[in-house]
Amino acid sequence: MSALISIIVPVYNFEDCLGRCVDSILGQTYSDIELILVDDGSRDQSGAICDAYQSLDPRVKVVHKKNGGTSEARNYGLELASGEYIGFVDGDDFIEPDFYQVLYDLIVKHGTDISMVSYREVWADRAVEKADTGRTFVLEREDAVKGLLLDQEIQNYVWNKLYKRELFREIRFPVGVVYDDINIMYELFRESRSIVYRETAKYNYCIRETSVIHTDSHKKREDGLLSILKRFYEVERDFPSLKQYNAYALVLWMIRIYTYTVKGVDPEDGFIKERMPMFCRLYEENPAFILERLKPLKRVILFIMLWDIEKGKEAVKKL
Fold first, then answer.
1. I need a surface site. Which of 20, 221, 261, 301 has the fewest CB within 10 A?
2. Chain centroid to CA 166: how far?
3. What is the pLDDT of residues 132-162, one digit of tens each?
């Protein structure tokens, strides 16, 4: 007998794409699901669309609330969820018909606490699969955290995974933070005994230039760095054996955020300058380890930052 999966979808002004998302969930080959649509104060017809689906399918639950952001909406969904497993889908994305069947079979077969698959980026004019080799591997807790720090096969996204419900016993999304996935994913991995990952693209991540994550702002960049700093100190405490990987992850994000800041519409970078002594120290302690893992372009930006982050802005703009 299959177990119930609770699928939480935050909804905010998605009237143009919500139907595609919900249809892809209700059409899953794994049918033992409850779909929780959290209307986060939408100002378009998204709330009415949610209600229409609830009237058509008894598996659909709808809650309407004042706008509080994606994190708060996901937390509302967690309070309503009654399934043995928890999944998340963003309201502007959609999933393949066997997405949850694959995730469920993986987690049951391998006895892990989290299962995950790859995804494809869907743009207006193209789709790009990130990994689709069909390869499957299981990682114990420390190796899973290592993978999260390397940010290659294992990434911080909350939506391409299936979780045992008990992982969320005391864990909730941080409210008011743009990069809430980063904040919560480490906590979930730390609480897990193991995860299983299959490189097959089953989630369709739609790139919309108007979405919060793709809109440039000082808050977005600062939230990202603060989230990574929070994780850095927690990993330093919990997994001292991963010291080099932890240093690499922070240096990598500093490079990314410096690049976004220099090329962004809002060039505020005081929060980066404040962390430069830490950035330099981590690199000086682990130069070979970090350089070996950085892609060539990021190595160039690293050296520019070490030279002079102020004078180097014009050079980075041209890269």
1. 20
2. 20
3. 899 999 999 999 999 999 999 899 999 999 9
